[in-house]
Design goal:
single chain; about 290 residues; alpha+beta; Immunoglobulin-like; four-stranded antiparallel β-sheet
Length: about 290
């Protein structure tokens, strides 16, 4: 028999057992800390039964909502954030200028290469930071809408986007000329499509990988679609800054990828602090 002194909800849980639709093993899942995945499966079965109108049943429905919407609030551990910066390990290289000899009325006559963009603090822009092995039970979630990538003055904007597995990228063309989208991938189907001004081309990505996007008509144009299998991915900003939020406590390996600097990994431990800071260098040191 469950003692009502353990939890103010214990009597109602016991009432559910007495009514016959809550099994005693539910309590094993709830105490001493909820097993989130097991509870979700168990509660999903309960919500399909007709007796859920009783007081004990209403409590179970409430628990189901809490578990489904606040999975990090019902356990003893509180999620935190990993925040930091990705820095270039060596001195900044000389900036490379791309000479343009086509469609200059839109593209201009030259522009700086965006293959490696560094901030004043050696911060690396457009690097991708992710947790190599996500916490147990974490699933990828589709965004509320498609991710967009535009073409403006013969440059992909933004240069790097993140989309979950099964998500869609809408490729836009704001330039008053013809572009084409040519993908390079191994896991997802490749595509090579012409795109006049104003046309939106949606593309769904079904498998996790990093996909390169080129424009065959304007050879300096390049972008990247990172197809992510879990939510712990981020793209660095102008000073190399990044943030990974809602990370449960634990030991993780960060993976940092950049199109020209390659890949590095760093171990990090998230404890009960709200923010865990880290600085990672990438590239060859002098």
């Amino acid at each position: 028999m469950l003692s009502s002194g353990r939890d103010p909800q214990a009597a109602q849980f016991q009432g559910g057992i007495a009514e016959g639709f809550v099994k005693p093993e539910f309590l094993d899942l709830w105490y001493p800390a909820p097993d989130i995945e097991a509870l979700l499966l168990y509660l999903d079965e309960l919500t399909r039964r007709s007796r859920m109108r009783s007081p004990a049943g209403r409590l179970i429905r409430m628990v189901a909502l809490v578990v489904a919407w606040c999975p990090l609030a019902v356990g003893p551990a509180t999620a935190g954030s990993i925040k930091g910066a990705v820095l270039h390990a060596g001195p900044p290289p000389e900036k490379r200028t791309v000479t343009i000899n086509i469609d200059q009325y839109v593209c201009g006559k030259s522009r700086e290469s965006e293959e490696l963009v560094l901030g004043p603090n050696r911060g690396v822009r457009w690097a991708v930071v992710s947790i190599q092995t996500p916490p147990p039970g974490v699933r990828g979630e589709a965004p509320p809408g498609p991710v967009q990538m535009d073409q403006q003055q013969c440059v992909y904007v933004p240069r790097v986007v993140i989309v979950p597995v099964g998500g869609t990228v809408e490729f836009l063309n704001s330039d008053r000329l013809l572009h084409n989208l040519h993908s390079v991938s191994t896991e997802n189907a490749t595509f090579n499509r012409t795109q006049p001004k104003g046309r939106t081309i949606p593309v769904a990505f079904k498998k996790a990988e990093i996909v390169r996007i080129d424009c065959d008509l304007h050879t300096w144009m390049r972008a990247w679609v990172v197809v992510a299998e879990h939510p712990f991915f981020a793209v660095t900003g102008p000073t190399g800054e990044f943030a990974l939020d809602n990370v449960p406590p634990g030991k993780y390996t960060l993976k940092i990828w950049h199109e020209t600097l390659g890949t590095v990994t760093r171990d990090v431990t998230v404890d009960d602090k709200p923010v865990t800071g880290i600085v990672v260098e990438i590239g060859k040191k002098p």
